[in-house]
Amino acid sequence: MIEYPQQLHLPKDYLIRKANEFLAEDAPDGDKTTLGTVDSSIVSKAAIQAEEDLIFAGEALFDVFFDTDTFTVKRNYSDGEKVQQGGIICEIAGPSAEILQKERVLLNIIQRLCGISTLTKKYVDIANPYNVKILDTRKTTPGLRLFEKYAVAVGGGYNHRLDLSSGILIKDNHIMAAGGVANAIEKLKRKGFGLPIELEVDNFSQIAEGIRAGADGFLLDNMSPEQTYEAVELIRSNPGGQDYFIESSGGITLDIIGEYARTGINAVSIGALTHSVAASEIHMEFE
Hints:
Structural class: alpha/beta
Radius of gyration: 23 Å
Shape: elongated
Number of domains: 2
Order of helices and strands: HHEEHEEEHEHEHHEHEHEHEHE
CATH superfamily of the largest domain: Aldolase class I
Mean pLDDT: 97
Oligomer: single chain
Helix content: 40-55%
Strand content: 15-25%
Distance between the termini: 53 Å
CATH topology of the largest domain: TIM Barrel
CATH architecture of the largest domain: Alpha-Beta Barrel
Low-confidence stretches: none
Number of strands: 12
């Protein structure tokens, strides 16, 4: 069965590097408004509050943005916990000017992570009773992939391949360029990468070809629930059929995921978790 490494934590050095990058983008020559209005000696307390119910993700960011030697940071929620509308996610006390300069960047990242984890949890709650995994895709924001895949894991989902180097997925354009399903799989086997081979298919003849050529799993692309039932039956009826990894993908929304989860597949991959998710609504208030 195909499985990929999971993004279960965000490395500290990665967080520091990204935070510095984001802050430099937002204030390349300082925060002129704050520099002109707030004296460096002023100290404030600020609270980050949820404006809607959400699944929180991003607790490690607070200590990266606010040095604990200078700031007091009180986290009221851990990653994966539900925050109800009005809940105070975190309280920060320290130099006002630095809080103001970092406010927007910090909120932008946390809002996006919470949006991803919250949406993922909704899919997971529907799929879990059928023992079906919710997977992300590589349809991530450039430069934010580790953040976004981490947020999927926080929401109870699973990470598909992290990048093009860590997994093999033969898609329709690979099939065309390689001269067919069999050619693509045979060429990969000769290369000896030592990675399982997953094949994207949109018809039953490609499934049959993939089985004969030795694919390890199948991505059923844009198939209806009825077609998915048939495809699963075809795959599972072969010797060792229970060992094949089968995922469905392509426009599967919350309204219809239950129909797919009942078909006998192992997973559903959903690009919308990261490519078009709405950020959760949160804000910061000074006290």
